[in-house]
Amino acid sequence: MSNLKTNRRKMHTSQSMRGKKLFIDAAIICFLIMAWFKLCMGIESSLEVDTAADETLYLYSGITQTTPADYGPLYGLWYWLLWWTTPDRIDLYYLNWRMTTLLPVLAFYLICRLNRVTPLVSAVAAWLLLISSINVSTWPRVSHLALFIVLLSLSAISLLRSRSRSSLAIATGLLAASYVRPELFLSYVAGLGVVLIDLIRDYRQKQLLPWLTMIITGFVQLALLIWQGVPMTGERSFVAFSQHFATSWITWNNSQLDPWNDFPYIMQTAFGDDVDTVWEAFLANPMLILRHMVQNVIRLYGIATLLPVGVVHYSATADRIDKLFLWVVLFTALGVFLMTLHLIRRSISELLFRKEHNRLRVWIIICTLLVFISIISIYPRPHYLLLLILPLLFFVIVVYTANQPLTPPRLPELVLTVSLMFLLTPMPWWSTNNQWQTPALRFLNTLNSVQQAQLTVLVPLDIAGLYIPTFKKIIAYHENGNEFMDLLDEADIVIIGSVSSSETIRRFTSYPQQYGFEPILEPYIPSLFIRSEHRQLFSTK
């Protein structure tokens, strides 16, 4: 009888402890959402729409469902789903920015908790990711969704006890992520090797193979490959390589060419004709490719964008205060990390190679090593580096994993910590002046006030998809300006997105009256021109 009472008491205590842990996790998730809300306040007052040309192309191809396999069709599908809730393209643009800021943070916290990292450490780590500039200010946002999918996939290691089931789930997640970032297809192929090894091991140990899981995941993977094709077979990877190689070539030769528009000529000059893949370029001139890779290694100083050193600059004084505050936060976290290493009295190598983290370590290497190689081969742009969050996640897990069952943090300790982090959460988009719209947003709203059905607008190709689609017609031109004059006769409104390298476009912007156009001299919008007979339609404010 006493044993029964003891068992009931233990069960009640266990259930009570589990309930407290769930309550604490829910409270911390609510805190992260509140901090995210504070972080994104006033985003429309500082974040320019037309500074992220790649993002507007993703948006347009997503809502029109015209994204090829090598251009992130799953990211396009994500935009399409959001579009059903937010039809206005400008609001959709900002909604996506907000959501991609939050989702990787929540997944980061989830995987830390699943690996038995204490709640407060998980909260601090997720909060540091939330406020880091690589999360907040990096664009395009495509890598944020890829990171979110990869983190959710890695959580299968803790959620699924069967090695084979978890490997199949992670491999399927990597295939899905490769339709967001094509270079992850290499990680998927390598992950299939891990799946095969786990299946053979289970078979030899006479464990029941997960036939149902194999059939479901196999069907999903095959359906994706048939529906979208292999994500690395298109031209995107080679175009990206060519444009970024062109930046190196221009640096070496002190050239005035534009790498984004003149890369075909540069590639022909460097590697000759009939070079259509990176491998063919390597065979044509291996030393030049190696020199480019060395140049990219040097460029890796950009990895500093992983640090929370400030993202928006209102004034020199505010910028210095912002950076000073965030560097103090960073070094405080580093000091706590080093003190933890001292207290647990274990070497770094002993922590990194703990047996209990073998599977997580293998999968993180697969997810990051091949991606890192592709980064060095193309260019270490900040959004490419976002997946390098995964090794940092592994460090947090191996150092702060709770080896023994720990009691949840006490309520005062929890409240004090999350309150302090909330107060320290920066507001990089918030502005104290009365200008609540960016120049681009005010510009788009000005366009929206015109009788659009009667007008034809001529816009740069890279931002055509964002502009309000209710004009009589939208015509897109390339920044090289070859067809600009041919299209000009049909246009009523002309938008020049940036200072162009085309002599034709520069001549038009300098003397628009010669072509029957007038500039709209609204502050910050010198690149909007309208036919003289339509000038009265615009009421600038």
Question: What tags apply to this protein structure?
Answer:
about 550 residues; mainly alpha; 23 helices; 5 strands; about 60% helix; globular
Distance between the termini: 83 Å
Strand order of the largest sheet: 2-1-3-5-4
What proportion strand?
under 5%
The major sheet is characterized as:
5 strands, mixed
- Our Rg estimate from Cα atoms comes to 26 Å
The coarse silhouette is globular
Low-confidence stretches: 305-321
Count of β-strands: 5
The helix count comes to 23
Structural class of the secondary elements? mainly alpha
Explain what the structure shows.
- By secondary structure, the protein is mainly alpha-helical.
- The chain has 23 helices and five strands.
- The chain has helices spanning 2-39, 53-63, 73-85, 89-114, 119-131, 133-136, 142-154, 156-159, 163-178, 184-204, 211-228, 236-253, 263-271, 278-284, 286-299, 316-344, 348-352, 358-378, 389-400, 411-424, 439-448, 484-488, 503-510; strands spanning 456-460, 473-477, 493-495, 517-519, 528-531.
- It has a five-stranded mixed β-sheet with strand order 2-1-3-5-4.
- β4 (517-519) and β5 (528-531) form a beta hairpin.
- α9 runs parallel beside α11 and α10 (184-204) packs antiparallel against α18.
- The longest helix is centred in the N-terminal third of the chain and has 38 residues, at 2-39.
- It is globular and about 80 Å long.
